[in-house]
Design goal:
The protein contains 19 helices and 22 strands. The protein is of the alpha+beta class. The chain has five domains: 69 residues; 108 residues, Beta-Lactamase, CATH 3.30.450.20; 98 residues, 2-Layer Sandwich (Beta-Lactamase), CATH 3.30.450.20; 161 residues, Heat Shock Protein 90 (2-Layer Sandwich), CATH 3.30.565; 120 residues, Response regulator (Rossmann fold), CATH 3.40.50. A hairpin with a 2-residue loop joins strand 9 and strand 10. The longest helix has 47 residues.
Length: 693
């Protein structure tokens, strides 16, 4: 006999025994009390009849309890049905309580006595339960134990549901004959359509409502759970459900429902009381009634948008960095060719003015490339320890010259200002760009004020000011204005390169993109707070620099400024490695003209062979960083044995930080950023050779 049946039989025998004991006890009391009460035969017979009826009633109650429990035991959720199923299965009530489960279910889900009550999996489950009450076999997703399980839900009684896990199997699993036999024996008629929300929906943490009408957005609310008011700001009985949804969003959702897109899948809507809040709407229909679930996904959508924006900015940054690298090579070739032509067309030559104009235009192009590199976080940086207050105070003099007379500059220096580790020039560029943008914003509307504020923030304060992932204390530089503010429809595009709201010819659209790149390259964060008509505030957060007791090794960086060599000629053998023919050819030609012997290599592999051929005879190696095949740092590591202690100079448009980790343990290495002209290259070559001598 099955264990549940044994328990049932034991309870039946126990209940019968208890009823008999109770009747016997009452009769004994009656016989003992009869002499004392002078009770006659009639009275005694009536008393015994009353005792007998009481016993029968007790026995009936025990029997009813046993029948009820037997009904529960004989419910399709009994061991007979569950044991007949191979897949994980359980019997659940409308409120999500698990009445029984087989061993496979306990292994997959655990010993939880309730189905999920929150999250998207709960929403899917509620929709499936509603469909199951109509006699349908519905699919749902159940998340438990960190994993998501696909499930099939079907009604097996008036208030019982069979939930079976299908894994990744599509379609309903066929019940085995043994399970079908048990199910057929104990299943009653399917329940009628829902008249009220069940306990599961009523207690759910998201909005749920029962609607009456043909169109869900024109249907009226019959009943709603308390969470609907918290989610949608309404949900009174008799209210039109569509009034909870934003008008534009309602039209779009109606079109999707008409096209059949809302069947089983959520429809995204904006809520009427706050259009910034987004919810997923689940709808299920039965006999003119709708069951609607509203799940607030505003935070989830915000995180998705931030992730998408971050990925977009990263992709644009990679593209900008690649374009800037190639463009720097072209500019380097242009600058060097201009140097060659300048020797043939000195001042007074008819071609001098034209060549000079080309050089100025090329310089502007190089500045544009630097901005692209700053945005893509590949600009060469020279970090130093800066006092935040002193930095802005010294820079304030220049800022006042940039701002016009109708724009007032207000500075607010907080107390206990920290130190930061950043590139001074880059940080000044970022603040300058923000200040100029603020100036243009207020001047376009008749003038106003620009405010620069510095402060030290705790981690909690930084969270409140718009830096959600701040760790530890932060240094704040805030540039704000009292202009018209930034329109909401462009707020998420302002850091995109080449995006500008200024008229054609008045801006490149790289100002804020440059600021974004500088801040990110400084391991910081930038946030924007703006409302129409209330101005805008840009907040730069930088990690507070905490001096270390130990002196760490100095990173490879751009070589410090040295006295400029007047005589740019020299002697020595140089291995020049550059994959761009235009750059390599003209640079080698100009270096040879200054007395150097130059060995050219178009790739890292070719350079390695030449280094081996001329082992111990190379005085300086000049190499590009990014090349097809073998990269510059890899070349150095493999060729160091042939170069000996000869200095190495890398030239590239990428930041030193992009490859410094690959040069760990290397010494006598310097970096020269592109674009470069021959004068700069010749000066650095002579300095490196003199230093090595």
């Amino acid at each position: 006999m099955a264990e549940p049946q044994v328990r049932k039989a034991r309870r039946g025998r126990f209940d019968s025994l208890m009823a008999g004991v109770l009747v016997f006890f009452l009769m004994a009391v009656a016989f003992a009390a009869a002499p004392a009460m002078n009770a006659g035969p009639t009275t005694l017979a009536g008393l015994l009849l009353l005792i007998g009826l009481t016993g029968v009633a007790c026995l009936g109650l025990f029997t009813l309890r046993g029948a009820s429990e037997a009904a529960d035991e004989n419910d399709p959720g009994s061991a007979g049905l569950l044991d007949a199923l191979v897949e994980p299965a359980a019997i659940a009530a409308p409120d999500g309580k698990v009445h029984a489960a087989n061993a496979a279910w306990k292994s997959a889900i655990g010993l939880a006595n309730r189905l999920p009550k929150s999250g998207t999996s709960a929403s899917s489950l509620f929709a499936a339960l509603t469909a199951a009450r109509r006699g349908e076999t519905a699919h749902a997703a159940i998340k438990a134990g960190g994993a998501e399980h696909e499930a099939i839900v079907s009604a097996v009684g008036a208030r019982r549901f069979l939930v079976r896990l299908t894994g990744h199997t599509t379609g309903a699993l066929a019940l085995p004959p043994a399970a079908l036999e048990v199910l057929t024996a104990f299943s009653g008629a399917m329940p009628p359509p829902p008249k009220v929300l069940d306990a599961f929906a009523a207690a759910s943490p998201f909005g749920a409502a029962l609607l009456e009408g043909q169109d869900p957005f024109e249907a009226r609310i019959i009943e709603a759970n308390p969470a609907l008011k918290a989610v949608a700001g309404g949900g009174e009985k008799g209210q039109v459900f569509g009034d909870l949804v934003d008008v534009a969003s309602r039209v779009e959702a109606s079109q999707k429902l008409a096209a059949g897109q809302g069947s089983g899948a959520p429809v995204e809507v904006r809520l009427a009381h706050d259009p910034a809040r987004i919810a997923h709407l689940y709808l299920s229909k039965s006999d003119g009634r709708w069951v609607a679930y509203l799940v607030d996904v505003s935070e989830q959508k915000q995180i998705e948008l931030q992730l998408a924006q971050s990925q977009k900015m990263q992709a644009i940054g990679q593209l900008a960095g690649g374009v800037a690298h190639d463009f720097n090579n072209l500019l380097t070739a242009i600058f060097m060719q201009l140097d060659v032509l300048a020797t043939r067309h000195p001042v007074g030559d008819p071609s001098y003015e034209g060549l000079n104009e080309i050089k100025q235009t090329s310089t502007r192009a190089a500045d544009l490339v630097r901005k692209l590199l700053a945005f893509s976080r590949k600009q060469t940086v020279q970090r130093e320890i800066l006092d935040l207050g002193e930095l802005i105070s010294e820079f304030e003099v220049l800022l006042r010259r940039v701002l016009y007379e109708d724009v007032k500059l207000i500075t607010d220096y907080g107390r206990n200002l920290p130190q930061v580790r950043a590139d001074r020039g880059q940080l000044e560029t970022a603040v300058m760009n923000l200040a100029v943008n603020a100036r243009d914003s207020v001047r376009a509307h008749g003038g106003g004020s620009v405010r620069i504020r510095t402060a030290r923030l705790t981690q909690e304060q930084a969270h409140g000011f718009g830096y959600p992932t701040a760790q530890g204390d932060q240094a704040l530089i805030e540039v704000s204005d009292d202009g018209p503010g930034i329109p909401p429809n462009v707020l998420d595009k302002i850091f995109d390169p080449f995006f500008t709201t200024k008229p054609v010819g008045e801006g490149t659209g790289l100002g804020l993109a440059t600021v974004y790149g500088i801040v990110k390259q400084s391991d910081g964060w930038i946030a924007v707070d703006s409302k129409p008509g209330e101005g805008a505030a840009f907040r730069i957060f930088l990690p507070v620099h905490i001096p270390s007791a130990m002196v760490s090794a100095a990173p490879i960086a751009v070589a410090p400024k040295r006295p400029v060599a007047r005589d740019l000629s020299g002697a020595g053998r140089i291995l020049f490695v550059e994959d761009e023919d235009a750059v390599r050819g003209v640079a080698a030609k100009l270096l040879r003209a200054r007395g150097y012997e130059v060995i050219e290599a178009a790739s890292g592999e070719e350079a390695l062979e030449l280094a081996e051929t001329h082992a111990g005879q190379i005085d300086l190696m000049i190499s590009d960083v990014v090349m097809p095949g073998m990269q510059g740092p890899d070349l150095l590591k493999q060729a160091r044995g042939f170069l000996g202690s000869a200095p190495v100079m890398f030239i590239s448009g990428y930041a030193e930080s992009e490859f410094s980790d690959l040069l760990e343990g290397e010494t006598n290495v310097s970096f020269l950023p592109k674009p470069i002209d021959i004068k700069t290259l010749a000066e650095r070559v002579k300095q490196e050779l003199q230093k090595a001598a």
